[in-house]
Amino acid sequence: MASIWKGSLAFGLVNVPVELKTAVRSDRISFRMLHEEDLAPVRYERVSSTTGEAVPWGEIVKGYEYAKGRYVVLTDDDLKAAAPEASRTIEILDFVKAEEIDWRFVETPYYLVPGKGGEKAYALLREAVRNCDAVGIGKLVLRSAQHLAGIRVVGDALVLELMRFAAELVDASTYVFPPASLVRPQELRMAEQLVDNLAQPFDPEKYTDDYRDALMRVIRAKLEGKKIDVDEPEEAADDTPVIDLMSRLQASLAQGRKRPAAKRPAAKRGKARRRRSA
């Protein structure tokens, strides 16, 4: 895959030549807007909200709305004056513990791939970060915008994660959340037991996009000329039922106990049979 950015990763006086490459890919199904009569693609036009007429690109400017319906126009020179200085270096400013980073800050991951001649320095930084169980925090200018970035180790790779600045997060105090005092001790014990019953090692392969799979089945069926049957959704009840937490927890625990037990290795099953016969 093509590099998104080339430069160096600096920690202290050590510079590691690196290339930024994508670590994720979109698996969403996209659609085109079509004219129903002849299935011709429909284009979006830039239309003035005042005259309703199309506006050519040459007559479009950028404006910041500082009050309702009032704008200040910014030219390309204005934007250049405010743009962060382009740099080919990601300087690690701090090292922090991974558990100290709130997940809300993390946006998009990228692989940092070593540049030519930088393999040893790359491996040195990677192993130092791994052994210290740390995450490097720095800043990166990408596509004319400055980003906060976290650098962590995943396997043999250094992964750079674009992060949000603190000002981009909505403070939790903006909303009202229920206090822990609402929970009775017996309910909490049963909920904890339910969590323990459902505990599994994380396996990302077991989680799939069910909507995408169903949508692809519909698309394939339509391509083959098959009729698509649509199930009508059930009407919601007028009154929202009062949830009895205890009965729900008990039913959930009973359902969890009915799950089939994992198969034991043959050797262990043999030992168990011998113990029972004894």
CATH fold name of the domain at 5-24 and 89-166: Ku70, Chain: A, Domain 2
How many beta-strand elements? Answer: 9
Q: Main beta sheet: strand number and arrangement?
A: 7 strands, mixed, barrel
Poorly predicted regions are: 262-278
Percentage of residues in DSSP E strands? 25-35%
Q: For the CA atoms, what is the radius of gyration?
A: 28 Å
- Helical content band: 25-40%
- Overall mean confidence score, pLDDT: 82
- Class inferred from helices and paired strands: alpha+beta
Shape: extended
Task: Please identify the top-level CATH class of the domain at 5-24 and 89-166.
Answer: Mainly Beta
Query: How many individual helices?
Result: 6
Strand order of the largest sheet: 1-2-6-9-8-7-5
Query: How far from one another are the termini?
Result: 63 Å
CATH-defined architecture of the domain at 5-24 and 89-166: Beta Barrel
Spell the H/E element sequence: EEEEHEEHEEEHHHH
Write a concise keyword list for the protein shown above.
278 residues; alpha+beta; Ku70, Chain: A, Domain 2; 7-stranded mixed beta barrel; two-stranded antiparallel ribbon; 6 helices; 26% strand
Report a brief summary of the structure:
This protein is an alpha+beta fold and 278 residues long. It has helices at 76-82, 119-131, 185-197, 210-223, 245-257, 266-277, and strands at 5-11, 14-22, 62-67, 70-74, 89-97, 106-114, 134-142, 145-154, 157-163.
Question: What does this entry look like structurally?
Answer:
The protein is of the alpha+beta class and 278 residues long. It has a domain at 5-24 and 89-166: Ku70, Chain: A, Domain 2, CATH 2.40.290.10. Helix content is 26%, strand content 26%. The chain has six helices and nine strands. It has helices at 76-82, 119-131, 185-197, 210-223, 245-257, 266-277, and strands at 5-11, 14-22, 62-67, 70-74, 89-97, 106-114, 134-142, 145-154, 157-163. The strands form two sheets. It has a seven-stranded mixed beta barrel with strand order 1-2-6-9-8-7-5. A two-stranded antiparallel ribbon has the order 3-4. Helix 3 packs parallel to helix 5 (245-257).
